């Protein structure tokens, strides 16, 4: 009993550390991604498919932590040889390089295609809107996330989370009061309106994607570990990149890259730096997103994305000299209030209070060693209580 309690406390601590790391990556990607994407378009970039392709093109970096994880699993398996020989452990099967089973692989592939489509729609909007305007529209994804999380994964709401959703949505509405004055010079009314609509559609689609990822975790007939989450992210990014690659080939974007680099306003070298920074920032966003969903919930991920809107607003004003109206200051205050409300509720009334899974969250011992099998006392079906 004491050993099980110690393992549970250790898993809970590891889960909190992973949550903090993924929150940092998500915050960086949420603000850095739109800013770098807008930088590409401001100084002469015109390729929407290229911009959307960059959002998941950095997927090979995920192979590094996956490789390290596999090496560690092999080492632990090798070190247990003596225990297996003495009969203490009945597990002579070496760990597999890949943990994904067919169900999660197909789910990740479908989510990847949807993500590729969402990336294109979002890039189309960002190409025509200021960062401040696109950021406030994207904040509406929180409402979409909350609705789809309730429908797909039966997300449990608390007064604190409802208050946070209301405040963050109100902050976005306040920002919308001066969107018309932010129209870029030379932008036609039709192009601006199309960018506005496309960005709103992107927010809605991503609000559906977040709970879909959580639903696939919940329905998986295997223990969900962080290595498995990384594999899910890898497959998702590969399929999203493949989707955008088809668009680039049809639009002949690959042939246009060298010409666009020579004509770029900041210079040819800076052009490629912007492309690389774009890919890195968005990879942090997607890694942080799936990590927060794994450690907390899709609604938590949506809250963090929404709360970074005022930060993106301020950075847009600082770097791109966008106007900062009084309404934007009010929105910052409302968003910070919503952020504090949500996390106060999480601290005061944690959702995963017991091991029954009744509140839709994972019980505390969620994170298993990758070569460790679930204990017999867990769900007899072999599926986790929640992810």
UniProtKB/TrEMBL annotation:
Signal peptide: none annotated. The chain crosses the membrane at residues 17-41, 53-71, 103-125, 131-153, 160-180, 192-211, 223-250, 270-295, 302-320, 326-344. One of its GO terms (molecular function) is purine nucleoside transmembrane transporter activity. Keywords: Membrane, Transmembrane, Transmembrane helix, Transport. Its main location: membrane. Residues 374-387 have a biased composition (Polar residues). It is found in: Membrane. InterPro entries: EmrE-like, PUP_plant. One of its GO terms (cellular component) is membrane. The keyword Iron does not apply. Residues 364-387 are annotated as: Disordered. It is a multi-pass membrane protein. Belongs to the purine permeases (TC 2.A.7.14) family. This is Probable purine permease. It comes from Trapa incisa. The lineage of its organism: Eukaryota, Viridiplantae, Streptophyta, Embryophyta, Tracheophyta.
